[in-house]
Each structure stands twice: as structure tokens, then as C-alpha cells.
Amino acid sequence: MMILRIFVAILFNGYTISSYINKQSQAAQHLLSSLNNKTYDKLLRPFFGGKAVNVNVSVVIDGIGPVSHQEMEFTMDFFFRQIWQDPRLNYSNEGLSQDHYLQFGAEVSDRIWRPDTYFLSAIHTSVHAGGSRNSLIRIWPNGKIMVSERLRVTSKCYMKLSLFPLDTQTCNLLVGSYGFAEVDISYDWYASDPVSLNNEISRIEIPQFTFLRYTRCIGTHKLSTGNYSYARLSIYLKRNIEVFIVQVYLPAALIVIISWVTFWVKRNAVPARASIGVTAVLTMMTLTAGGVLRDPRFTDVTPLDIYIVVCFMYVGGALIEFAFVGYFDKPRFYKRPIHAYRNGSVTMIMNNDAGDFDQKPIIFSNGEQINCHQTINSDVGDEVQNETQT
Fold this sequence. Notes:
Elements: H1 2-36, E1 53-68, E2 73-85, E3 102-104, H2 106-109, E4 117-120, E5 122-127, E6 135-139, E7 144-156, E8 168-177, E9 185-189, E10 195-197, E11 205-206, E12 209-223, E13 226-239, H3 242-259, H4 270-289, H5 303-328, E14 336-343, E15 346-350, E16 362-363, E17 369-370, E18 387-389
Helix pairs in contact: 3-4, 3-5, 4-5
């Protein structure tokens, strides 16, 4: 008896599956035939002359980057889905439940009416085509349509760089209709999971940036041709300062420390002090002129600029200190002893240069005195009294 029940259940399930497949096939044929005849015009929007078409959008982020502060732009890969209602594609009379849908490829999506969605401020938009165009369409019995595509969008990201490289940037992705005003098409975020991350990625890795969060909203922007609805996705990014610490902050600090080495070098070691000071200044100039720091698009003074200027002042101050020491290190600016010795018939005056001291007489131990420019004949070995000249 049990075996008979199992056999009957298998037959019934097989009939049910076969019946469902037949209904689904008939619905697909009916739908495709309606697209081929002249009863469906893809040039006219649904509810033409009536209420606006409500387009719900959702985004599954697949990756972000690169983000460029030089070009003021960012790139994002994502799955973009649009959902709207088209009663002309209703096939509920085929006996299928509302939970089932018919799925087609990109060819069918080109044969139906689609909203002229575009991305405001986008520089370049492309559909991924890994062997075939990454696009699909699903149609439910009540005429609900979903089009899903994998896109790569490069869009403008207007950055405020007054705190560079300690800045946090907000990059916006706006979705709207190019030609249809708000009275024809209105955009909104899909109620179920409107924005999410791809399950294949645990976190978003962006060069020089850290992904913080995202927000979404809808709005209307006014143009001369009418009011247009849009949906906005805001991406918040924080710049990673580690690369600037390694490439700029630490090298600049080390250059300043190296320039201070001249303070421990003897003041009469002119070549050593000059080479260290000039090398430090030239290195700071090279670091400042590097492409890491300054870009023509920078219009604000940033904390990095202030740090580099302060470091440059320290290095330049060390070089100026060397110049002051070299200038004031002359005999006329301080007192020095004068030693005179008799060597044969000639008196030798040591540690002084002619013209750098007052012409005061040198007094010998026997009371004899001479001027500095005189030569005296006397015996060898008599030492001259030390005299301090101004």
C-alpha cells in the first residue's frame, strides 16, 4: 500500500512539474509574440498620458577605485538593478503564480521600453562584457520588470582638499532620467536591500583611502526644461595618512635633524658645515617639488604645505646660522693674545694678521718696546711679554 502511494505521488509531482513547464513555455511564447506584433510599442512609456512610471533602483557594490584627487574623479563597479511596472507585458492569465517569473537575456531587454537612466556627472559608463554582455531581465506575471546589469562608472568627485592629507571625502553617484521629467518618471530606492556589498568581498580595498560608509537619498533638481527626479548614493572615504608619513613626514623630519648636525661641527670646519647645510636645503627643495605634495589643481594651503614650509625654515635657519658664524668669526670682533719671539735678529709675531689690531707697542721684559711693524736685532732666546690686543 505504501509503495502504491509513493508511486502515485511521483506521478502527480511529475505531472505538476510538466504542467508548470508547459505553462511557463506558453507564457514565454505569448510574451515574445506580443513583443513581435505591433500591439506593443517600446517607444511609448507605460501609463503613457497618465501617471508617472515609478522606477525603483538598487545597487550591489562590487568594488571602488581608483580614486584620484588629481583628476577629481572616482571609479566604481557595481550591479545596477531597475524595477518598474509595465501592464502591457502582463501574462497573469497563463495560470502562473505571482512568485514565478520569466528570465531572458540582453536581447529581450532591448526589445522592451526601458527608462533612459543615466548617471549625473559620469565621465564614462560601460557594461561589463566577459564573453557576453552582463545583463538580464526578469518579467513577472503582473507586468513587473527587473533589469540587472554589471556596470563600471567613472564619475566626478569634487573634493575639498583644505585638510589634505587628513581629509575625508564624499563621492556622490546620482541616478536619474535624461529626458523624462518628474511627471513622467520618478526614481526611488528599492524597499528591500537597496544598497549592499557583494557577498564575495568582505571589505572594500581602495588605494590611499579607507571606505567608511554610504548613505542614500532621493531628490529633485530643477532645470530650465523641467524638474527631474534622481536617486543619490553617497560614498564616504577617508584618506590613509600612512603613505604620507613614510614618503613625506619622516623624510622631512630626518632632513631637519641632519641639518642640525652642523651645530656640533667646529666652526672653522667650513667645507664640512657648508656641504651638510647645502645638501639639506637641496634635498628639501627636491622633496617639496615632488609630485606627492603639490598639484596644479590644489588651490588651498594644506597642513602638509605648512609642515613642509616649517621644515624648510628649520633647514634654512641652520644654513643661515653657519653664514653668521663664518662672518663674525674674525679677530676684530673679539680679543686674542699676541705672542712675540726673538729668532735671531728678527722678532716674529704669531696668531695675528697685520691690520687686524691696533698699532700698540710690544713691551719686552727688559723694558724695551717696539711697534708691531718694526724689526729688532737682539740675542736669540729672549721671550717677548704676551700682550692682549683689541
